[in-house]
Amino acid sequence: MNNSSWSVAKRLIKYILGTYKIQTIIVVITVIISSLSYLVGPLFIMYIIDDIATPLIGNQNSDLSQLFKTVVLMGTLYYTGVLASYVSNRLMVNVGQGVLKRIRDELFEHMQTLPINYFDKHTHGDLMSLYTNDVDTLRQMITQSLPDVFSSFVTIISAFSAMLILNVPLSILAVVMVVIMVFTAKKITSKSGKYFVMQQRDIAHVNGFIEEYMNGQKVVKVFNHEKSTIENFEELNDKLCHRSTNANRYSNIMMPVVNNIGFLQYVLTAFLGSILVITGKGAVTVGVIASFLQLTRSFSMPFGRMSNQANFIIMALAGANRIFAVMDETPEVDEGKVTLVRAKIKNGEIEETKERTGTWAWKLEKENIQRYVELKGDVRFKDVVFSYDGKKTILNNISLFAKPGQKIAFVGSTGAGKTTITNLINRFYDIQEGEILYDGINIKDIKKYDLRRSLGMVLQDTNLFTGTIMDNIRYGRLDATDEEVIMAAKLANADSFIKLLPEGYDTLLTNNGEELSQGQKQLLSIARAAVADPPVLILDEATSSIDTRTEALVQAGMDSLMIGRTVFVIAHRLSTIRNSNAIMVLDHGNIIERGDHKDLIKEHGTYYQLYTGALELE
Fold it and tell me: Which of 572, 497, 559 is nearest to 530 (CA)?
């Protein structure tokens, strides 16, 4: 193994010993007992042949009591080995599953800390492969490969020690044959190992492709791209097949090659041993030869098992390397110190409280001095410059403000920067220049958790989780009561269609709410934002997937939701933003027009042309 593989292996060992140190020690002891018990047999065979059976040959009054006692002792030792093997296997299953649970927990927990741009760069199927394929290879390595390799190592040491005691020349022959065996196995393993590593990567690519096109199956069928999709899949699958074939070809020839070398060693040992017995050299007896032949098998076979398990270990380490690479990704940076607290205003002073008052405040601490700023929803951009990749600028010196309770709308063609602005308020991405102020506080100084807790967001793409409608709305605020959830649904005008469902609010949703229409899903998304009751609301084309009739219901609900809140709206349907306090028209990252609906209509500029249909949003 290279240095990278060793570091991964040591990291895995820390996981095992960190939580299951006592169980691991017991496993080591039981594996040693199990391995030694199977080596007792060959030594007993020598004793039975030379010391019991040979003296009794030709003796008509043979006393078989000693033979009986020896056989009973052998059986007891073998049974002890079986029991030890059972204990070690049971413990390793517990250890293995416990370690994998901890790895999955830490991996998933760490994923929640990664920035949005990490998920922009990696397919969901590729990430899912970590939890399925890569974790499964670790399971096989921890529960099977590692105990088998350790058991084989103990067997090799014990068998060779016994062989040296019985006969040195025959032991030298065994060493020579094992050197040949190890050299051959190493050559084969080096070939299979690199293909197993590539196989793990290709499996992730195939999983990613399948997951992506399963989600986009309707699009594939609409544009009749089944043939090209199949061709693309076959190209990825061919790579996986080629590398898997090579990996398993070398892996599968390992055991036959190693076993045949072992058989050759067995034959040579029998031949050389027979010569020594016939010539009377080396004090070799028939019992010694019989015992030595058994030890030869016990000595050579573990090398084959270890060589075979090496492939699984290499594959598992490759999977572990992928897992640890994600776990080592830099978490989302949060240097903020300002927190969000419940508050009440008494005699003009803001006081922190645990009660639900409907009032929130920013808590600023400096040199043990606490200061509170009421959360009103005043959001301001000052000369903001932003780029996703550090090369292409998306926003150019954007300056705007939204006073508490105002509704600010953004219009423009695709790629103009509308959604980017709302993503920056949430700090899904950080700006390169300028500053964004929230109630006079730079959002970089606010803890991200608290910042996002103060914001409600309705996205164009609705995500519903497996669970009841009640649970999906409550996702906006997990401590919301059933009554508060129902009130939020009524506010979003979702209550009417929910009541018509067979199970009402207890209707179980699966597969991103495939049981509902797109409009109904969007209504639930708006209800989710309503139950969160945020002071600032972001609507990213929230009515884009709703028909005109449903839009009227949704718009009425959203108008109620917007009362007293600062609202940022992105909309293709300009009719939904006529009552906005200010409308920003964006083009290639620049604000080219701003004002309310009446003022912009009077200007006869871009907004006028969009509103009258002279221009169309792309």
Answer: 559
Q: For residues 456 and 531, give the distance between their C-alpha atoms in angstroms, rounded to a whole number.
A: 9
Measured CA to CA, the distance from residue 239 to residue 17 in angstroms comes to: 38
- Could you tell me the strand order of the sheet in which 359-366 lies? 349-352, 339-346, 359-366, 369-374
Phi and psi based region of residue 408 (left: phi greater than 0; alpha: psi -120 to 50; beta: remaining): beta
Beta-bridge partners for 398: 384
Percentage above 70 pLDDT, the chain: 91
SS3 337: coil
Q: 418: closest CA among 294, 583, 258?
A: 583
Map tokens 């390793």 to a residue. Answer: 92
CA neighbours within 13 Å on the CB side: how many for 471?
12
What is the C-alpha separation between 489 and 21, in angstroms, rounded? Answer: 52
Q: Which stretches within 501-587 are classed as H helix?
A: 518-532, 548-562
pLDDT of residue 258: 73
Q: How far is it, in rounded angstroms, from Cα 321 to Cα 313?
A: 12
Amino acid at 486: I
Chain segment 585-600, per-residue pLDDT in tens: 988 889 998 998 888 8
Nearest partner of 418 among 570, 617, 574, 538, judged by Cα:
570
Find out whether 593 and 605 touch, Cβ atoms under 8 Å: yes
The letter for the amino acid at 330 is T
> Is 584 in a helix, a strand, or coil?
strand
CA–CA gap between residue 415 and residue 196 (Å, rounded): 42
pLDDT in tens, 469-484: 999 999 888 888 999 9
Q: In this model, does residue 431 exceed pLDDT 80?
A: yes
Helix-helix angle 65-111:286-327, to 10 degrees: 10
**Of residues 379, 398, 366, 399, the one with CA closest to residue 440:** 379
* Residue entry with tokens 């409600």: 456
Going by pLDDT thresholds of 50, 70 and 90, the confidence category of residue 543 is: low
Amino acid at 113: T
- Token readout for 355 is 């009660």
Residue 298 near residue 159, CB atoms below 8 Å: yes
Q: Give CA–CA dist 252/115, Å, rounded.
A: 43
**Count of C-beta atoms within a 10 Å radius of residue 250:** 20
Let me know how long the chain is.
618
Give phi and psi for 242, each to the nearest 5. -60, -45
| CA pair distance 510, 465, nearest whole angstrom | 7
Cβ count near 27 (within 10 Å)? 24
Cβ–Cβ < 8 Å for 284, 303: no
Backbone angles phi, psi at 144, to 5 degrees: -120, -55
Q: List alpha helices for 143-167, DSSP H.
A: 146-166
Q: Which helix (H) or strand (E) holds 224?
A: none
Q: What is the mean pLDDT of residues 344-371?
A: 85
With 0-12 / 13-18 / 19 or more C-beta atoms within 10 angstroms meaning exposed / middle / buried, residue 482 is exposed
pTM for this structure? 0.73
Helix H, strand E, coil C: the string for 435-475 is: EEEECCEEHHHECHHHHHHCEEEECCCCCCCCEEHHHHHHC
With beta carbons less than 8 A apart as the criterion, state whether 334 and 322 touch: no
Closest CA to 34 of 150, 160, 165, 162: 150
Token output for 442: 């730079």
Task: For residue range 160-198, list pLDDT tens digits in order.
Answer: 888 887 778 888 888 888 788 778 877 777 777 677 778
